[in-house]
Amino acid sequence: MNQETEKIVTGSQIKTNRDVFKVGDAISVHTIVKEGDKERIQIFSGIVIARRGSGINQTFVVRKISYGEGVERIFNLNSPFISKITVDRISKVLRSKLYYMRKREGKSAMKVREG
Predict the structure, then answer these.
(1) pLDDT digits over 55-86, tens only?
(2) What pTM did the predictor assign?
(3) The CATH number of 3-103 is which of 1.25.40.80, 2.30.30.790, 1.10.760.10, 2.170.150.70?
Protein backbone atom coordinates (compact mmCIF):
# COMPACT_ATOMS: atom_id res chain seq x y z
CA MET A 1 0.00 0.00 0.00
CA ASN A 2 1.45 3.37 -0.93
CA GLN A 3 1.58 6.36 1.39
CA GLU A 4 -1.31 8.33 -0.13
CA THR A 5 -3.68 5.36 0.14
CA GLU A 6 -2.58 4.70 3.72
CA LYS A 7 -3.26 8.32 4.70
CA ILE A 8 -6.75 8.16 3.19
CA VAL A 9 -7.63 4.86 4.92
CA THR A 10 -6.24 5.73 8.36
CA GLY A 11 -6.89 9.48 8.32
CA SER A 12 -10.18 9.25 10.17
CA GLN A 13 -8.65 7.14 12.97
CA ILE A 14 -5.86 9.57 13.91
CA LYS A 15 -6.59 11.57 17.07
CA THR A 16 -5.91 15.26 16.55
CA ASN A 17 -7.02 16.53 19.96
CA ARG A 18 -4.06 15.11 21.93
CA ASP A 19 -1.79 17.39 23.97
CA VAL A 20 1.57 18.07 22.36
CA PHE A 21 4.38 16.44 24.31
CA LYS A 22 7.92 15.40 23.57
CA VAL A 23 10.60 13.10 24.95
CA GLY A 24 11.63 14.11 28.47
CA ASP A 25 8.28 15.57 29.48
CA ALA A 26 6.47 14.26 32.54
CA ILE A 27 2.96 13.26 31.50
CA SER A 28 -0.13 11.56 32.89
CA VAL A 29 -1.91 9.11 30.60
CA HIS A 30 -5.56 8.49 31.48
CA THR A 31 -6.46 5.04 30.18
CA ILE A 32 -9.87 3.38 30.09
CA VAL A 33 -9.84 -0.02 31.81
CA LYS A 34 -12.75 -2.40 31.24
CA GLU A 35 -13.43 -4.92 34.01
CA GLY A 36 -16.45 -7.05 33.24
CA ASP A 37 -19.26 -4.67 32.39
CA LYS A 38 -17.71 -1.71 34.24
CA GLU A 39 -15.30 0.93 32.98
CA ARG A 40 -12.90 3.08 34.99
CA ILE A 41 -10.08 5.51 34.34
CA GLN A 42 -6.56 4.53 35.43
CA ILE A 43 -3.76 7.12 35.43
CA PHE A 44 -0.18 6.22 34.53
CA SER A 45 2.21 9.10 35.30
CA GLY A 46 5.87 9.18 34.33
CA ILE A 47 8.55 10.49 31.98
CA VAL A 48 8.37 9.94 28.22
CA ILE A 49 11.61 8.16 27.31
CA ALA A 50 10.90 7.38 23.64
CA ARG A 51 8.61 8.11 20.71
CA ARG A 52 8.53 6.19 17.47
CA GLY A 53 6.50 5.62 14.35
CA SER A 54 4.32 7.97 12.35
CA GLY A 55 0.69 8.35 11.47
CA ILE A 56 -1.57 5.69 12.91
CA ASN A 57 1.39 3.61 14.14
CA GLN A 58 2.87 6.25 16.47
CA THR A 59 3.80 4.96 19.94
CA PHE A 60 5.48 6.36 23.03
CA VAL A 61 7.11 4.82 26.10
CA VAL A 62 6.42 6.17 29.60
CA ARG A 63 8.64 5.21 32.54
CA LYS A 64 7.90 5.65 36.24
CA ILE A 65 9.31 4.41 39.53
CA SER A 66 6.77 2.41 41.54
CA TYR A 67 7.75 1.17 45.01
CA GLY A 68 11.45 1.38 44.09
CA GLU A 69 11.02 -0.62 40.88
CA GLY A 70 11.15 0.89 37.38
CA VAL A 71 8.00 0.34 35.31
CA GLU A 72 7.71 1.09 31.60
CA ARG A 73 4.59 1.03 29.49
CA ILE A 74 4.21 1.43 25.74
CA PHE A 75 1.13 3.32 24.54
CA ASN A 76 -0.30 3.71 21.06
CA LEU A 77 -0.90 7.45 20.57
CA ASN A 78 -4.12 6.88 18.62
CA SER A 79 -5.57 4.19 20.88
CA PRO A 80 -9.28 4.48 21.70
CA PHE A 81 -8.45 3.36 25.26
CA ILE A 82 -6.55 6.59 26.00
CA SER A 83 -9.06 9.16 27.17
CA LYS A 84 -6.67 12.00 27.96
CA ILE A 85 -2.97 12.89 28.02
CA THR A 86 -1.89 15.77 30.23
CA VAL A 87 1.57 17.32 30.39
CA ASP A 88 2.67 17.74 34.01
CA ARG A 89 6.18 19.12 33.47
CA ILE A 90 8.05 20.27 30.36
CA SER A 91 11.73 19.36 30.10
CA LYS A 92 14.53 20.14 27.70
CA VAL A 93 16.57 17.12 26.63
CA LEU A 94 19.31 16.72 24.05
CA ARG A 95 18.45 13.17 22.97
CA SER A 96 15.58 11.53 21.12
CA LYS A 97 15.64 8.39 23.29
CA LEU A 98 16.28 8.48 27.03
CA TYR A 99 17.19 4.83 27.58
CA TYR A 100 19.99 5.91 29.94
CA MET A 101 17.25 6.65 32.52
CA ARG A 102 16.90 2.88 33.04
CA LYS A 103 20.30 2.77 34.78
CA ARG A 104 19.55 5.56 37.24
CA GLU A 105 18.45 4.95 40.81
CA GLY A 106 16.82 7.06 43.51
CA LYS A 107 15.94 10.71 42.89
CA SER A 108 18.16 10.94 39.81
CA ALA A 109 15.90 8.41 38.08
CA MET A 110 13.16 11.03 37.82
CA LYS A 111 15.31 14.09 37.16
CA VAL A 112 15.46 15.55 33.68
CA ARG A 113 16.62 19.07 32.84
CA GLU A 114 13.80 21.57 33.32
CA GLY A 115 13.17 23.73 30.30
Answers:
(1) 888 999 999 998 888 899 999 998 889 999 99
(2) 0.83
(3) 2.30.30.790
